[in-house]
Amino acid sequence: MSPETMGGNDGGLLPFGNGRSYGDSCHNDQGLLIAMRDHARIIDFDHNNGILEAASGITLEEIIPAIAPSGFFLAVTPGTKFVTLGGAIANDVHGKNHHLRGTFGCHVESLQLLRSDGQIYLCSSSENEALFRATIGGMGLTGIIISARIRLMKTGSLDIIEKITPFNNLEHYFDIAEANDAENEYAVAWLDQLASGKKTGRGVLIAGNHADNGNFTVKKRGFLPSVPFEMPFSMLNCFSLTAFNYAYFKAKSGNSAPHLTGMDSFFYPLDGVKHWNRLYGRAGLFQHQSVIPFETARKGIASLLQAASEAGQASFLTVLKRFGSISSPGILSFPRAGYTLTLDFPNKGIKTLQLLDRLDAITIDSGGRVNPYKDHHMSAACFEQGFAQWQTLETLRDPAFCSDFWYRTALAGHN
Questions:
Q1: pLDDT in the model for residue 253
Q2: Residue 414: predicted pLDDT
Q3: How does 167-192 read in b/e, with b if 16+ C-beta sit within 10 Å?
Q4: Burial level of 80, CB count in 10 A (0-12/13-18/19+)?
């Protein structure tokens, strides 16, 4: 295998999948990126036991149509199907069912890892276990994932029976979240981040289970609406989002009876709009995702929302989910038992950076951690406080591999 490389000079190597990461963990501006998308094929699929082996450059979008006719679906899927298999492992992605299935890495049987010494290592929980645990959630720093074997989930349908429960404020959400998880495979809450007073943290809890009607047809993508060009400034501000949030809350609240919805609209709503990120303008966006332990979550999540409000920053997509207690095999996996809040902010320069510092501090003070896979900002101290085992990954990192994130937090921050 001799993957193509892209750009750079002598700053090391880094595998590059489909470029869907929000942060700089997939950047290596001082070195070379190894393009993995050409290595996209299914090697083997056990239709009876639901074990798939595939090259790491294949995307989830390409996997789903191959497994669906046999009645299988991904045990864990993130909010976009445009990520590669290797990227899903390297970022140990999570979905709306962490309380039942854990992370993507929990379903990896084994993987083949090419290191800079020229050897290919078969890694699993019983063979080269240390490399296996470092590679899951290891952000591509242990070498090139050539292929992987993953366990799939048997389902009755690709369609989802969706149920929407409005909640009046943040406390209301916390009061119903655990019981909701116990009854459903999937659950995620959308919050109106701009609501204030007694309505602070209001939103809708969106739950779902696979239907039993046997629909396993993956619809081909037709025409997709698109943001045609990059805006000179962000279209997402307090005024536009206040109107959007009100309309969205009212629309969702009026559709609370259980109803059938398609796979794409339930799991991958943003995939239905091409170049949606252009709405944020030329300066782009920052995403902040944190997880707060159960015991401090009510206060910590409220403090995060208050900090954003006090800073006058509007989040377009504000999502709150409950993580379960299933541990990932990955030593640097982000999820832990608690609640995870995701906020998206247009980049307004120093004002936004100051807010991110504040959000990081609240997270750490609450005993939580910030997601490194979506980060482009956190300090070395914030990373170390959230991930005490980072040094274990450093000892197992392939010396020829590095990333902008690792330079910024683990290396430059501790030299």
A1: 80
A2: 61
A3: bebbebbbeebeebbeebbbbbbbbb
A4: middle
Distance of CA 237 to the CA centre of its chain: 24
Residue-level pLDDT at 224 = 59
Distance CA 47, CA 45 (A): 6
Tokens representing residue 75 in the block: 């045990």
Burial class (CB in 10 A: 0-12, 13-18, 19+), 85: buried
Instruction: Tell me which fold the domain 160-214+229-379 belongs to.
Output: Alpha-Beta Plaits (3.30.70)
CATH 3.40.720.10 fits 5-155+385-414, yes or no: no
State the span(s) of the chain assigned CATH 3.30.70.2520.
160-214+229-379
Alpha-helical (H) ranges within 278-326 are 294-310
Residues of the chain with CATH 3.30.465.10: 5-155+385-414
Q: For residues 98 and 100, what is the distance between their CA atoms, to the nearest angstrom?
A: 5
Which of 325, 322, 327 is closest to 301 using CA atoms? 322
Q: What are phi and psi of 25, to 5 degrees?
A: -70, -15
Q: In what order do the strands lie in the sheet with 108-114?
A: 42-46, 51-55, 144-151, 108-114, 120-124
- Block means of pLDDT (10 residues each) for the chain, 415 residues, are 49 92 92 95 97 98 97 97 98 98 98 98 98 98 98 97 97 98 97 91 96 86 57 57 68 84 93 70 88 98 97 92 98 98 94 97 98 95 96 97 96 70
Q: Tell me if the pTM is above 0.90.
A: yes
What is the number of helices (H) and of strands (E) in the chain?
12, 18
